[in-house]
Amino acid sequence: MSKGIPVFLMVGILVMSSGIARALPTAGNSTGYGESVSLTGALSVSSPQQPVATGTAPAPYSNSNNVASLSVPGVLSTGIILVNASSDVNGVNSPRQSSADATVNDLLLVIAPLLSISATSVQSTALVSGDYSAFSTTGTTTIVGALVNGTPVPVNPAANTVLLNLGGIIVTANEQSYLADGLPAASCAGAVASCKLIVNAIHIQFINAVLGLGLLNGDVFVSHSDAYLQASPVPEPTTAALLGLGLVGLLVSRRSSR
Prior knowledge:
Structural class: mainly beta
Order of helices and strands: HEEEEEEEEEEEEEEEEH
Number of domains: 2
Shape: elongated
Strand content: over 45%
Mean pLDDT: 87
Distance between the termini: 8 Å
Largest sheet: 9 strands, antiparallel
Radius of gyration: 26 Å
Number of helices: 2
């Protein structure tokens, strides 16, 4: 009788060896910026995302940016803005992370007579960590000494807290949203291969708001952070595979004795 291992048994071993116990974070990116303005209609103002810190891994990165002050005429002014972005994704098979944060100091936003927002500081953070099907996310917003049309704002508002919704103006604090495998989702829970967390400390929407003799539309973002992590499953031997190899050894031993 042949001492070789039957083909069907080898196939069985390969199948049993395909269990997934770990994952490999393959990519990470993150971005933090201080402000972004896009308004049309009765007030037409556009300001790009600035200042910006961003990066894409691998290789790992840690990037920062800042400005001493910033002004968008007719909309807002600030003091010092600090932004950071980092990721430690390096191709090594272990949990990794991506993160970003943005801090805007001495914010004054006035679109008279519709809206007035002031704050000593406005900060957002976004963190995504973990690996395949085991992502963890943390998003925070801290707003110090803030008033919206004269009403105080909580220092640490809950996610997606609506501070004002009146006359086509919606002001949301700690706005948080997710992309799981590239699609909008309530979270990144479950068997997903990629996760993105987006945090806006303050998001202002104008939807046909009456300003003078016209209508105002558009968005203003203050203190934005987002973080993204992608991972791929990595096969490795399982207990079932080791048991299969043991059975093969026993079979070969018996055939040799015959």
